[in-house]
Prior knowledge:
Blueprint (H helix, E strand, L loop, with lengths): L7 H12 L30 E5 L1 H6 L1 H10 L2 E4 L5 H4 L9 H12 L3 E9 L13 H18 L4 E8 L16 H6 L3 H12 L4 E6 L7 H19 L6 E4 L2 E3 L6 H13 L3 E10 L7 H20 L7 E3 L9 H4 L21 H10 L4
The structure holds (3S,4R)-3-hydroxy-2-oxopiperidin-4-yl beta-D-xylopyranoside.
Amino acid sequence: MTVKAHTRREFLQHAASAAAFGATALSGLSAFATPGTAAPIDEHARLIPYGSAARADALATDVAYREAIVTNCDIVVPEGEMKWPDIHPARDQFRFEKSDALVDFARQNNIEIRGHTLAWYGGMPAWTNDIASRGEAEGELVGHIETVVSRYRGDIASWDVVNEPLIDWPEDANSLRPSIWTRQLGPDYIPIALRTTASVDPATRLVLNEYDVEYKGDRFAARRMALVQLLRALRDRDVPLHALGLQSHLFADRVFDRDALQAFLRDIVALRLDVLITELDVIDYELPGDIGQRDARVASIARDYLEAVCEVVRPRAILTWGLSDRYTWVPTWFKRRDGLPNRPLPFDADLKPKPLFDVIEDFRRRFA
Ligand code: XIL
């Protein structure tokens, strides 16, 4: 598979120099400062960058939302626009309108953009079910990564290359989530995806993203153990990997296991991996309906979690899976029985900041 000659950035830089692009400098805070640059660290630079999942359609139609993202975010990540169904809907068809729009939005507002996600079992387009051999699977996976990653080389600071590789209750690192990739490539799909991404864009940071490692219980203990095993195996095989993404979808009805989480994070640090909080929200369907009480509980749950994480490691970034309750996946998957709208995010549906936003602001300054 040939890698595209010009990245989209090069094309636009050419256009930009022709058209003198406008860009409003925001914080310019980056989760991953350009590797190896020994820039003097001022107070500002020591803030942990904050970011959010963003939706291209809402950015295009909802001015208030767009302004709230520009005002509050150092980083954005496409909620769905870079997933296979959106970007590669048919075998030889790529669709970049929405992902390009998000990259342009980020560049025009001096906001960092993360990529999500290149190898995931979730929501794969139907045509991939016709992939019938190891060779074909490797060709399609490598081809997809070459096409997408090369297009945004220089724009995308970090990619969730591999998302949710483990089954819900794993026995060990080999308990991988069944997908077209495991069916045809077995566990090799993970090093193939990471090595390919690294070869196409050597500057982008490579992240493996997972969920449900925070709580008490055998399932969570099994997930922490299997994840450390998986990451250690990748390290032992010199597979390029820079960071673990902790999705951090927190549940109000679960019991936090602070000691186990911190021991797990120490294992991650010992593997010389960075840590990012990639999809924080608080699933509130079991919390009281009263808004004041609920928002306070949501904030205290996040505070306990961020406290436990930051005592062990400085997260490279804190991202929430959406900025405002106006746009969140939570009601689709965790609807409240009382029918009240969920309130899992830092801003309410009227784009007013909530106690959760203050908590995140506190932790951004934790290492400043
Ligand atoms: C979710 C999106 O928010 C939903 O809109 C979509 O229907 C399903 O996927 N972990 C991930 C995200 O890594 O990609 C998922 O996003 C949420 C859980």
